Amino acid sequence: MNIDNKVVIITGASSGIGEATALKLSEEGAKLVLTARREDRLKDLQKKIEERGGEALIITGDVTKKSDYEKLVEKTLGKFKTIDVLINNAGLMPLSYVEKLKTDEWEKMVDVNIKGVLNGVAAVLPTMIENKGGSIINISSSAAHNYFPGGAVYCATKSAVKMFSEGLRQELAPKYGINVTSIEPGAVATELTDTITDEDIKETFKEMQKMTFLEAKDIAEAIHYALTQPARANINDVYIMPTEQQ
Ligand code: NDP
């Protein structure tokens, strides 16, 4: 598939992997719909894309709210008439040990990392089924393969995303030509660790930061690769680790 002129929705586009993916796909000619809660950051990104000759619609919203998704789809179809790709990227990672019972943070992770992905799929699927084609990229994590300290709930949410992706692929790819990919990165240098409130875990991450992390643009390249294979080839998983990470 060629990404040129394809209509691509990216959630969590206001920073990190979402922002890098927006820049990469816009360079390749995609028409973008960028969503997140921070409007100022989305506007800065939109300006950057437009200065480079690209096209991006920004729509602020919260992935945990179905009504925000309804508006997003309505506005996307209003402007671009179709939806070719959904990149379910929004996520957070407030790590802590289970015994600390930070249940509010568990709930947020379940709401954003799992329900956010489900809401996104539910919102775009009628259009993709009608089109008999499309691509869904879900950002899971190496956390779907390996537990790390304080990550019991986060790893569970990312395992859910990986398995949901496989179920989606088996249901949608043969019947409707809708390709589904789970992207599973190790440590990427982004703002994700800012959501950690637990002091012990923050210390662990300081130690880890001596390692060379992946860059957000590395994941953007992986997403571009998954999206640009021939329609006959579904890239199921991309599991990508920093060379120095165990
Ligand atoms: P960032 O913190 O830079 O990006 C997270 C994005 O999610 C932000 O744009 C944020 O936007 C958005 N977001 C968070 N909550 C919501 C919400 N309720 N509604 C809408 N948007 C929301 O981190 P990354 O770029 O690293 O994270 C992107 C994805 O990659 C996440 O799913 C993460 O779990 C995954 N990942 C990251 C890894 C890493 O090491 N960095 C490794 C493996 C996977 P805003 O606050 O403006 O709403």
Automatic annotation (TrEMBL):
EC number(s) given by UniProt: 1.-.-.-
Top-level lineage group: Bacteria
GO MF annotation: an example: oxidoreductase activity, acting on the CH-OH group of donors, NAD or NADP as acceptor
Keyword flag rRNA-binding: no
EC category name: oxidoreductase
Pfam families: adh_short (PF00106)
Keywords: Oxidoreductase
Keyword Signal: no
Family of the protein in this entry: Belongs to the short-chain dehydrogenases/reductases (SDR) family.
Name of the protein described by the UniProt record: Short-chain dehydrogenase/reductase
